[in-house]
Give the backbone structure.
Amino acid sequence: MINGIVTFAKYNQEANKKILDLLNKLSNDEREKERGSYYHSLSGLIRHIGSGSLFFAGLFRGALGSAPAARPLAVLEKIDFPPNTLSEAQWSRAAADIETVDRALVEFAGALNDAALAAPVKLDWYGGDPADVPLSFMFYQLTVHNTHHRGQVSQILDELKIDNDYSAINVAFR
């Protein structure tokens, strides 16, 4: 299972890099333009991916406390994605922060062991049933979350006629 978690962490890192490389080629106005998505713009979707990853990392840290496997996530305490329209400089900072988050999650995944993967992550949704799930389940949910929103970015890029094969299965990252 640990190999799968590491593979998913590396996949997220590679897919986010590809999406950011594409979006970095757009003007800031194009990234910030209302696109009809729940998160409004391409920038909004990317900020949500970053914020979501931070949310999941916080759940992981909560489950593991001061366990050695949680140490790679400490670097994320200083990251905060702005909630509103970004300037060009803020976009650059957000893109760099996503790279930092992805590196930390890959390092975190590599530091996990079977006990950490089984650690209960407390949930405050589902009406308390279940009250917690294994960390491994939540790591897969992180991957699903990011993939879902990258798919929304991809659909917008398709509408803009921007070639974006970010989701192709690339095994080079393994």
